[in-house]
Amino acid sequence: MSGAKLGGGLLVAGTTSDAGKSVVTAGICRWLARQGVKVAPFKAQNMSLNSFVTREGAEIGRAQAMQAQAARVEPTALMNPVLLKPGSDRSSQVVLLGKPVGEMSARGYHGGRQEQLLGIVTDCLEQLRGTYDAVICEGAGSPAEINLRRTDIVNMGIARAARFPVVVVGDIDRGGVFASFFGTTALLSPQDQSLIAGYMVNKFRGDVSLLEPGMEMLRGLTGRATYGVLPFRHGLGIDEEDGLRVSLRGAVRESVVAPPVGEDVLRVAVCAVPLMSNFTDVDALAAEPGVVVRFVDRAEELADADLVVVPGTRGTVKALEWLRERGLADALLRRAAEGRPVLGICGGFQVLGEHIEDEVESRAGSVDGLGLLPVRIRFEREKTLERPSGTALGEAVDGYEIHHGVAEVLGGEPFLDGCRVGSVWGTHWHGSLESDGFRRAFLREVAAAAGRRFVPSPDTSFSSLREEQLDLLGDLIEEHADTRALLRLIESGAPADLPFLPPGAP
């Protein structure tokens, strides 16, 4: 490992949510992997509806799965031991070591289990440290959430337990980055401040020399260095924890692949249902030249769509009510009657069925679905977590399943353990569109049904695009961060002489 000791590590924190922690963590992992370092990502606690199933059947955040890919290692439950999946504004499903253990309110979660959870996450981290040369941890939100510090297991709580140095990332595109760096540090206790090694500026536009006086003043005020200024780049996000971003679309449109093929464009509308999960399923569609993907919440926005996708959701019954309230359900029924393509994935598949029995997720009991597919759904307490493989449209397909609803398929044409009736498809398989041959065959059928002359590119490889993106993140760190200083932090920890900034939090 280029001189770093076994079991070294670093925690990447942020001044805010969406400051760039996930991207910086993935970039550091890819940069280290290129140097021959055996590195693993780690996030003690993640709150996200965007999840993934590992080969051992554990559910973890998709961001950690992509960070593992950046590190060129297989993702495991050790890399994200606690996953919180919101089911409302006040409660979440708690997934512990890859398996759901129940629903809990925010007050209940922060009220009594933190000591036990801290023991679990530190044990996972120690297992990774015993296996890998370096572990790059990602924090959550901000380490200066002083109202939650007593129960924190993902920011300074895990950093202090592991004695890991912390680099704080700030999004300068939002403004106020120097105040955010200073304020984040000053709010922390002396013990926590002793681990804040320095800062990293993210999303900078312009001449870096103009920023240098501010970084020197910041060093004078805090005694801490800035470890890099990362330039703004479109399309460099990895799979988002939440939000409505198509992760690869920006990069693809900036000539990662050839211009659109054929004489036409396919327009894909994704219904932005409540508690939407695994919306990254449509990334592979957006990666195709000539395919335009947008998220919609009004019935009229389906009018010009060649394909409508009803994505996964943590609230199937709530999504069904939302579709009906907004007139989207009627629009989907009209589309099906006209033979215009609709694809339902996981919760979206369940919505398209005839009937739902739910005493688990919504506890709504018996609910009529849209009736577009001959399927009956029964929610079970045990969650299905699988990595299926199969064939569809004459092509090999891989996917992953994350759902409580069990489908009884009563008719139609078999389709990825779901079914197809005319131009309406439904499946529980997430990630199926990442299989290149199947995606092309599916888009050819969509184009034919929509009367388009669209031809999918034979050269688009989703896995290659993903690798190119991760390499771009590694380039960002290698070219714009102080990599020697980062290696010293990973090897030796935070400098011993870091000053304390009053007032500090208790």
UniProtKB/TrEMBL annotation:
<dbReference type="InterPro" id="IPR029062">
    <property type="entry name" value="Class_I_gatase-like"/>
</dbReference>
<dbReference type="Pfam" id="PF07685">
    <property type="entry name" value="GATase_3"/>
</dbReference>
<protein>
    <recommendedName>
        <fullName>Cobyric acid synthase</fullName>
    </recommendedName>
</protein>
<keyword id="KW-0169">Cobalamin biosynthesis</keyword>
<dbReference type="InterPro" id="IPR002586">
    <property type="entry name" value="CobQ/CobB/MinD/ParA_Nub-bd_dom"/>
</dbReference>
<feature type="active site" description="Nucleophile">
    <location>
        <position position="346"/>
    </location>
</feature>
<feature type="domain" description="CobQ/CobB/MinD/ParA nucleotide binding">
    <location>
        <begin position="11"/>
        <end position="243"/>
    </location>
</feature>
<dbReference type="InterPro" id="IPR047045">
    <property type="entry name" value="CobQ_N"/>
</dbReference>
<feature type="active site">
    <location>
        <position position="430"/>
    </location>
</feature>
<dbReference type="GO" id="GO:0003824">
    <property type="term" value="F:catalytic activity"/>
</dbReference>
<dbReference type="GO" id="GO:0009236">
    <property type="term" value="P:cobalamin biosynthetic process"/>
</dbReference>
<keyword id="KW-0315">Glutamine amidotransferase</keyword>
<dbReference type="InterPro" id="IPR004459">
    <property type="entry name" value="CobQ_synth"/>
</dbReference>
<dbReference type="InterPro" id="IPR011698">
    <property type="entry name" value="GATase_3"/>
</dbReference>
<comment type="similarity">
    <text>Belongs to the CobB/CobQ family. CobQ subfamily.</text>
</comment>
<dbReference type="Pfam" id="PF01656">
    <property type="entry name" value="CbiA"/>
</dbReference>
<comment type="function">
    <text>Catalyzes amidations at positions B, D, E, and G on adenosylcobyrinic A,C-diamide. NH(2) groups are provided by glutamine, and one molecule of ATP is hydrogenolyzed for each amidation.</text>
</comment>
<feature type="domain" description="CobB/CobQ-like glutamine amidotransferase">
    <location>
        <begin position="267"/>
        <end position="436"/>
    </location>
</feature>
<dbReference type="InterPro" id="IPR033949">
    <property type="entry name" value="CobQ_GATase1"/>
</dbReference>
<dbReference type="InterPro" id="IPR027417">
    <property type="entry name" value="P-loop_NTPase"/>
</dbReference>
<dbReference type="GO" id="GO:0015420">
    <property type="term" value="F:ABC-type vitamin B12 transporter activity"/>
</dbReference>
<comment type="pathway">
    <text>Cofactor biosynthesis; adenosylcobalamin biosynthesis.</text>
</comment>
